[in-house]
């Protein structure tokens, strides 16, 4: 098994382009797997998956089909996990509503480039501190089944006082659909019965994010 510390212990290239997508991905492949040709493999992956975020969000099976070894796939997964952990820690340092920019950055990093639609709920306590992040639905390229009863039931189980809904649009366009709007309304109505507030519903896509509250939809 490869050592996750290898990625961090080796210096990145010192060229002015050291931090661009090609250099970063080739560094992960080269230092993480000790394989030659990391730059060529990185260039091919970036082209096939549309950039570093697309490579990072790709299913392991898709990366394997693209020619990566199991070891290289694992190193990309470790790098992604580290990046997401850092983004999540930044978003959770303070009450969520006072660190909104960091939260949006985390949701974009986590969901925007995912190949299939997913629905998450961030459950908050009475101080708006994140208690739990739940993945309540995984779906296809254009649909994830969301059950209102499950969303509210989970809030009651952990005694959450509020929640933020989030899902992605793999198409790239984060504009809410009529189905998104109707589903959000149903969750808000159900949560209100138990005095649970829904602060927002955020949709993430490659083209950006949309907030239901900012759009005047809630």
Q: How many domain units?
A: 2
Query: Helix count, per DSSP?
Result: 9
CATH superfamily assignment of the largest domain?
Cytidine Deaminase, domain 2
| % residues in beta strands | 15-25%
Rg, Cα atoms, Å: 19 Å
Number of strands: 5
Structure write-up:
With 218 residues, this protein is α+β, with helices and mostly antiparallel strands. The protein folds into 2 domains: 18-85; 95-211, 3-Layer(aba) Sandwich (Cytidine Deaminase, domain 2), CATH 3.40.140.10. 47% of the residues lie in helices and 17% in strands. The protein has helices spanning 5-9, 21-33, 38-49, 52-57, 60-65, 70-91, 100-111, 148-157, 178-193, and strands at 118-124, 130-138, 162-168, 197-205, 208-211. The chain has a 5-stranded mixed beta sheet, with helices on both faces. Helix 2 (21-33) crosses helix 3 (38-49), helix 2 crosses helix 6 and helix 8 runs parallel beside helix 9. The longest helix has 22 residues, at 70-91. The N and C termini lie far apart (49 Å). The relative contact order is 0.10.
């Amino acid at each position: 098994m490869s050592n996750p510390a290898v990625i961090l212990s080796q210096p990145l290239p010192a060229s002015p382009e050291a931090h661009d997508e090609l250099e970063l991905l080739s560094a992960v492949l080269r230092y993480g797997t000790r394989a030659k040709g990391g730059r060529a493999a990185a260039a091919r992956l970036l082209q096939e998956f549309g950039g570093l975020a697309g490579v990072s969000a790709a299913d392991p099976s898709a990366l394997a089909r693209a020619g990566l070894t199991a070891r290289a796939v694992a190193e990309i997964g470790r790098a992604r996990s580290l990046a997401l952990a850092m983004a999540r820690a930044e978003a959770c340092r303070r009450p969520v509503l006072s660190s909104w920019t960091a939260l949006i950055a985390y949701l974009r990093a986590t969901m925007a480039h995912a190949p299939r639609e997913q629905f998450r709920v961030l459950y908050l306590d009475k101080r708006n501190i994140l208690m739990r992040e739940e993945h309540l639905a995984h779906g296809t390229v254009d649909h994830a089944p969301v059950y209102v009863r499950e969303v509210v039931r989970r809030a009651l189980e952990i005694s959450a006082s509020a929640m933020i809904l989030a899902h992605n649009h793999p198409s790239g366009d984060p504009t809410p659909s009529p189905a998104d709007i109707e589903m959000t309304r149903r969750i808000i109505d159900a949560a209100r019965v138990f005095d649970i507030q829904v602060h927002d519903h955020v949709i993430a896509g490659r083209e950006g994010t949309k907030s239901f509250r900012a759009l005047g939809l809630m």
